[in-house]
Structure formats: structure tokens, C-alpha cells
Specification:
The complex is a heterodimer. By secondary structure, chain A is mostly helical. In chain A, 74% of the residues lie in helices and 2% in strands. In chain A, helix 3 packs antiparallel against helix 4, helix 4 runs parallel beside helix 6 and helix 5 runs antiparallel to helix 6. By secondary structure, chain B is mainly α. In chain B, helix 2 runs antiparallel to helix 3. Classes of the chains: A mainly alpha, B mainly alpha. At the A-B interface, helix 5 and helix 6 of A face helix 3 of B.
Chain lengths: 220, 79
């Protein structure tokens, strides 16, 4: 019987339980910052015509900016950096499973934090473009009778996003463990490519796309 | 009937979530195909909306899988 727990893994500093996902997250964040500092040192001065590493970075930022522009129009300048940050975080903290580290997104506290960040981003953008009055008025849009449903739909989004990411990562892990138990050779390697690379990329894309979808819905 | 058997039946019934999701995905794909056949130049827009719909449906399937996993491993571990 394999061990599956939805309780967050504990990690003790002294007698204080800070949670394993928090430690892993900070490790990943430190690694990303280090990589970006190295990239900055490597490129030194950014040129008008990108070359080498600079063009890779510009491609990433540019592609997401264009995608955001196609979804939310001129609000892309405000939301694209935040979305890219969320996506990089989700990808990095889930992708480290490939190196045998526990993914931080297997902790529902972590994904709930991400969901609440996305929720905050959606509502700040909506209030910025419509004003607080316009944002609240949007709840009564089709008719006043729909207000409870509209409010519920809005406030369920962080939980829906959190459970989606958490369940995807957890289910991937459980399926991998089951396959390891049945066929310990060859098959897990092939499945590992899917669950640790492709699946992570899909979830990252979804996690970036959904806030954009909610923003374009909230600000139309 | 033992408790573990009842838990197994419950977890198995949650597999039916997959049937609903499959019907939804089939309908969405078939209508998307119709739309593309009628208007091939709009295939990009149809495809991206289809992807968004798939993501929503996949979420439902994952919720079902999550409940099954929790029933088996968390509740089953206790029984």
C-alpha cells in the first residue's frame, strides 16, 4: 500500500513547523534569482538587436505579452509581468519533482496562496479599469436576480484554481507511484517525461491563461 | 459488507465523473469540427476557445479523481 497524504509535509526549524513547501519554495526562488543575476552578468549591456541569451529572454517575455494583449487588450502592460511571475513560480516549483525534490505545489497551502494572488490580480486590474463602482455594478449585469450567482462565481475562483493545480500535481504523483509499484522498469521513465515535463507545462499554461480569461471577463 | 468495500464502491462510482466529462468533450470537439469545416479561416479562434473549454472540463475530471484518491488512500487508510 502506498502512502498518500494531503496533509502538508512538516519541516521543523527548532520547534517551529514552517512546512516543507515553504522551504522548497524559498530555495527555488533563490535559485531563480541567482540564475537571473547570472544572466544579467552574462548579457551585461542589452542591445537593440538581441543576441544569444538576450533573445531567449526577450522571446519569453514578448510571447507572453503578445498572448496577454490578445486576451485583455491594453491592460496587458499591467498584467503580463505578474502573470509571467506566477507562471515561472508554478513551473519551477512543480518541475523540481524531476530532480527528486518534493514539489511545493503538492501542498494545498501553496496553491491556495497562488490562487489568492491571481484573484487579487484579477480584481485589482478590474477596479483599475472600471473603478470600484463599475466593478460592483458588473455583479448586477444581466439582472439583479443573478447577483448571488455572480458573486459566488467570482469568489470561488481562487479555490477552484488552487484545487485544480493541487489535484493535478497530487494525481500525477499518485499515478507515478502506482506505476512504480506495478512495473518498476522502463515504463515509469516514459511516463515520467509526461508527468514531469509535459504535464507541468500544460498546468503552467493553464495557470497563466485562467487569470487572463477572468480579467477579460471582469473588465469587458 | 465491510467498510473498505463500501469505500471502494464509492471511489469507483466517482469514476463515472469521467463519463460525463467524456460526453462534454465529445460534444465540444464535434461542434468545433463543424465550426472549422464551415469557416476554416476561424480555426485559430475556435481552437483557443476549445482549449479553454477543455481545461474547464478537465478540472471536473480531476476533481473526481481527487475525491477517488482521497476516498481510497485517506479514508481507506483509516478504515
Amino acid at each position: 500500500m502506498i502512502e498518500v497524504s494531503i496533509m502538508p509535509e512538516p519541516f521543523y526549524i527548532g520547534s517551529l513547523n514552517v512546512g516543507l513547501s515553504v522551504v522548497v519554495s524559498w530555495g527555488v526562488i533563490a535559485a531563480i534569482i541567482l540564475l537571473l543575476l547570472l544572466a544579467q552578468k552574462r548579457i551585461r549591456n542589452f542591445t537593440e538587436l538581441p543576441r544569444g541569451l538576450q533573445s531567449v529572454l526577450e522571446l519569453m517575455v514578448g510571447a507572453l505579452h503578445d498572448f496577454a494583449r490578445s486576451q485583455v487588450g491594453d491592460k496587458a502592460d499591467f498584467v503580463a509581468p505578474a502573470i509571467l511571475t506566477l507562471m515561472v513560480y508554478v513551473f519551477a516549483t512543480t518541475f523540481i519533482e524531476l530532480f527528486g525534490l518534493p514539489p511545493a505545489t503538492e501542498d494545498i497551502n501553496c496553491t491556495l496562496g497562488l490562487g489568492l494572488s491571481a484573484f487579487l490580480l484579477v480584481n485589482v486590474t478590474a477596479v483599475r479599469s472600471l473603478g470600484l463602482r463599475g466593478r460592483l455594478a458588473a455583479w448586477t449585469k444581466p439582472s439583479a436576480a443573478a447577483t448571488p450567482i455572480r458573486v459566488l462565481t467570482d469568489f470561488i475562483t481562487p479555490f477552484s484554481m488552487a484545487v485544480r493545480l493541487f489535484a493535478n500535481v497530487l494525481a500525477g504523483g499518485v499515478i507515478m507511484k502506482l506505476v512504480y509499484m506495478v512495473v518498476p522498469i522502463a515504463v515509469p521513465a516514459a511516463l515520467g517525461v509526461y508527468f514531469n515535463i509535459l504535464h507541468v507545462a500544460i498546468q503552467t499554461f493553464v495557470f497563466g491563461m485562467l487569470p487572463l480569461l477572468y480579467i477579460s471577463e471582469a473588465t469587458e | 459488507m465491510s467498510t473498505i468495500g463500501l469505500i471502494a464502491i464509492g471511489a469507483g462510482l466517482y469514476g463515472l465523473v469521467g463519463a460525463g466529462v467524456a460526453i462534454g468533450m465529445g460534444m465540444a470537439t464535434s461542434h468545433a469540427m463543424d465550426a472549422i469545416a464551415r469557416q476554416p479561416e476561424a480555426s485559430g479562434k475556435v481552437n483557443s476557445s476549445l482549449m479553454i473549454g477543455f481545461v474547464m472540463m478537465e478540472t471536473v475530471a480531476i476533481y473526481g479523481l481527487l475525491v477517488s484518491i482521497l476516498l481510497i488512500f485517506v479514508l481507506g487508510g483509516r478504515a
